Amino acid sequence: MRKSLILFILLFPALIAGISATDTIRLAMQASLKNFPQDTDGKWIYTYSDYYPSLDFGDYFSFAHMKHYIGGGNPSTDEMSYWDGFTICTNGDNTDYGYSGSSAFWPEHQWGCMAGGGLNAAGKVVKGAPYLVAYWGYNYEDESMRSLQVDFADGETHRPVGIWVCNHPWAYYGIIHDDGFAHSFADNGAEFNLIVHGLDEEGKEAGMPIVIHLATYRNNKLDISPDWKYVKLSSLGQVNGIYFTMESSDNAGALGMNTAAFFCLGGMEILEHVDEIPRPAGLEAEPIDENSVKVKWSKVYDAAYYRLYVDSVLVDSTKTTNYTFTGLKTYTSYRFFAQAVSAFGESSDWGYVAARTKDLTPPTPPTNLKVVEVGMYKIVLSWDAGTDNIAVGKYTIYVNGKKYSRPKYTTASITGLDAGTTYQIEVETLDSSGNASERVSITVSTLSTMPTDVEETTAHDKQTVYTLNGQPVSHDAVPAGQVYIIQSGKQTTKQIIR
């Protein structure tokens, strides 16, 4: 096999003819359309069927389509109510169906492309030229269920060169204006990304992922393109396949992205398989302490030794299949790479794993814990913030030894208490990595009855005023409307100072 041979999956209309061993191989999606009949919407008629787990183009490319059926069919029609993965389309529609601020019209118009069509052999946009619409089924995504996976059907490793991607109209317009789920991008730092991952022969991630920015909001300006964009993938190295994931700053946590999880794929280039020293595989990282991480990997039998990198910087080499990286910053994320080198000096692609160092330093406890308000059934506390070497996250409140809440700020209202009851309340600081400080505590009693008539006192010199935790204060200095302990001669009462 010749290293210079480049294989293309361009999804173009040109037919392959008279190919020699040194020619660029172009797999025409247009020529394959007869294998993927279209409906009146311009999409593959089996988009909503799980009968076909993949779209296969020639001997090299297999695009996942509803590869992992979860459920959602209509028993009366045997038709699915959802789809994911890839489907082939010729629609080219770039109409804004979310103009009303609702997503109600998008499900029946999922088949378009912002560029207005696919690419022909000259790289020009043509209405009616085929392209792939991809939907990321993130709800079921894990290592064994990747909805946007592309396998190399010949079973060999190949070196990806690049892909053509374009924004999908649903995501594009949702980012420009609300669509009922998505929110428009108007804050600096907002972004919508497509991430490309390599796969090794065991189906595990290989090579450093490549992030493609489909939309960003920087310097008070939205950068989002309706055109096809070519992205180089050579840094993935030689892999057995690739898969895609997506991320958006507009998300609903465990419910996933609010931005519609679509993009369009117009083509892909890979290099022919060549025999070369394989990359280290199976990298695993174990944070040891605040400044070191141990990385191990599977043995490469052709390797004389391994080069080690941190964030692309060469730091050392080893003949073993593990290495402890030291001198790292506390609670910081790093990318670790291992590269196999043969006795003849040939070097492999990089094996890759990411990890974060530990944070073992607990924060300091809160100080100046005090009662702000007390009633028959409620106690309000405040305190001064604890400190941490990285960052304070939250606080944990315990009532009589039981966890009550985790407030973010330095005040808390404890409710649902019993009248005339004494409680021990403890507060601890939590840092951003989950370390807890020592607890500080205070004992507070709720009121047995709420005073209805408050004594008006003018002879302040005959009274001593205390806070509820026993600290003496000047009568003239206490805020009105709060409860204090008043000692007048031999009589001690709790009163609301007016």
Can you walk me through this structure?
By secondary structure, the chain is mainly β. The chain contains 2 helices and 36 strands. It has helices spanning 29-32, 169-176; strands spanning 6-9, 25-27, 54-57, 61-64, 73-74, 79-80, 85-89, 118-119, 125-126, 131-135, 149-152, 159-166, 191-199, 205-218, 221-224, 229-232, 241-248, 262-271, 284-289, 292-296, 305-310, 313-318, 322-325, 333-341, 347-356, 367-374, 379-384, 392-399, 402-405, 411-414, 422-431, 440-445, 463-466, 472-473, 483-488, 491-496. Strands 1, 2, 7, 10, 12, 16 and 18 form a 7-stranded mixed sheet that branches. A 7-stranded antiparallel sheet has the order 3-4-11-17-13-14-15, covered by helices on one side. The radius of gyration is 32 Å and the shape is flat. Residues 1-25, 72-77 and 453-462 have low confidence and may be disordered.
Contiguous runs where pLDDT drops below 50 for at least 5 residues: 1-25, 72-77, 453-462
How many alpha or pi helices?
2
Mean pLDDT: 83
Question: Beta fraction of the residues?
Answer: 35-45%
Shape: flat
Terminal Cα span: 93 Å
Major sheet, described briefly?
A: 7 strands, mixed
Count every beta strand, where a strand is a DSSP E run of 2 or more residues.
36
Structural class: mainly beta
Share of residues in helices: under 10%
Quaternary state, please? Answer: single chain
Give the C-alpha Rg: 32 Å
